[in-house]
């Protein structure tokens, strides 16, 4: 069940409309940073393997097989080690993910400002960011006045003044998007780790119980 929940959360994060709209963008020959998806794929793999290993543990318990329970315990130890390694990697790279996406946005924004054509790739990328995140401009002086002098790039509000007052910088929105998603991944990983620790303890207790009962 825990494996199924983790797999479900990971698949939801993988196909979330906000992240897919942004991370599938391409600026010329440069693809948007997809470091975020590495963590998602690790979660998907852990969830799928946990479901299989869970079945192995259940079958081993029903059959009272020390071999299957020992295999179950070994798989859990390996999974737990992989999860700890992935957690350390995620913690180290959590700020880098948003930073890479912001740099990609800034490059597209510069191209959009200099572009004369409506079909410019940078302009299309920037408009996708703005519409998906409901933001406009980077987190600097140019970004602050963008709604006034380049309102064609910003999401439309009722009036120009309302657009200027209610529009948030895209840097802030990118931080909010990925910090929220990473926070959810972190909670899921902690819940799985706790469940796995209990599973390892209980499988060893059961394995020892079967071994002792077989003596008599």
From TrEMBL:
Keyword Phosphoprotein: no
GO molecular function annotations of the record: lipid binding
GO biological process assignments: adaptive immune response; regulation of cell population proliferation
Cellular component, GO, one term: basolateral plasma membrane
Transmembrane parts of this sequence: 36-62, 68-92, 182-206
Coiled coil: none
Main location: membrane
Pfam families per UniProt: Tetraspanin (PF00335)
Location relative to the cell: Basolateral cell membrane; Membrane
Topology of the protein relative to the lipid bilayer: Multi-pass membrane protein
PROSITE patterns: TM4_1
Cystine bridges: 135-170, 136-154
CDD domains per record: CD81_like_LEL (cd03151)
Keywords: Adaptive immunity, Cell membrane, Disulfide bond, Immunity, Lipid-binding, Membrane, Transmembrane, Transmembrane helix
Classification via PANTHER family: CD81 ANTIGEN, TETRASPANIN
Stated family: Belongs to the tetraspanin (TM4SF) family.
Protein's name in the database: Tetraspanin
Organism: Smutsornis africanus (Double-banded courser)
